[in-house]
Amino acid sequence: MDVVQRVHIVPLGYEFDRILEPIRNQRADLVYLLTDDGHMVSSADYHEELLAGLESTARRVETKPCDLADVYAVLGEVTTLAAKHAGDDVRVNVSGAGTTAAIGATMACMDVATDATPYYVEPESYTVEGSAEPVSAGVEETVELPSYPIESPTRDQIAIMTFLADPVEHDERFRTTDPKKKDLIAYAESEGLSFLADRPNTTEKGKFRVLRTKIIEPLERDGYVTERKVGRRHLVELTEQGENACRAFAHKLRYGDSDGS
After folding, report:
1. pLDDT, average across residues 23-37
2. What does the pLDDT look like over 37-68, one tens digit per residue?
3. In the chain, what are the domain boundaries?
4. What pTM, to 2 d.p., does this model score?
5. pLDDT > 90: what percent of the chain?
6. What is the 3 state secondary structure string of 85-96?
7. Is the confidence at residue 171, as pLDDT, over 70?
8. H-type alpha helices, the chain
9. CA 38 to chain centre
């Protein structure tokens, strides 16, 4: 029988008590610290003290490189770690590294495929802005945040978007930067994507219909792809929002969707 671990994911900014106390109080087994360079900041004495406190509390502490100034980088790292620990009790501290990291971490927990609980730590006091580090002291309260579930792209949709980002890189047969729908179908079949693999007897015309209903139309509605006509060709193109979605949900190519697909 697998043992459920208490896992905490924490973007590390200029905090001390707001990071350590919840982990200590909830007796975390494993802590992931998201830092800009993947290491504790050695020049900050209180970071060294924080690491010592974490290591004396949790069974294991790991640091992960993450651009904390990039919402989608934080979102992607949190969803990836949560997917890695499916079945564990995963909690995410959204108050450890400022507004941008907080938004990314909160969005990650809103994804219905991410079974993680976000929490916010209210400090007892703040320092005068820019005057000292850490920027707050004490813990007044730790609050679990309400969940407002959102639907993220499916694994098949992420695979198609990742292919659209660079067709040649994913399959040397494709020598164009403007893949057509038949290229998407060929790629889906070569990768065994479920939207076609689950329909082995589908006609060629039927494959185009399934591609449209299961992949293109949902992605168009969410602003991840656009479709334009060039002569007789209908080209599907990835938008900037689609590129960000690929970064945020890349873990699905490795771990699949929450239902295992």
Report:
1. 90
2. 756 655 567 888 888 899 999 999 999 999 99
3. 6-144, 155-255
4. 0.78
5. 33
6. CCCCEEEEECCC
7. no
8. 17-25, 45-57, 71-84, 98-110, 155-165, 167-170, 181-191, 194-197, 204-211, 217-221, 240-248, 252-255
9. 17
Q: Quick one: tokens of 22? A: 């919840």
Q: What is the DSSP letter of 195?
A: H
Q: Give the separation between CA 219 and CA 164, rounded to whole angstroms.
A: 12
- Record: fold of 155-255: Arc Repressor Mutant, subunit A (1.10.10)
Query: Greatest CA separation found in the chain?
Result: 68
How is 92-114 classified by DSSP, letter by letter? EESSSSHHHHHHHHHHHHHBTT-
Angle of CA points 106, 255, 98, to nearest 5° = 20
Q: Which CATH number fits domain 6-144: 3.40.640.10, 3.40.50.10770, 1.10.150.240, 3.30.70.360?
A: 3.40.50.10770
Alpha-carbon span 137 to 80, nearest angstrom:
31
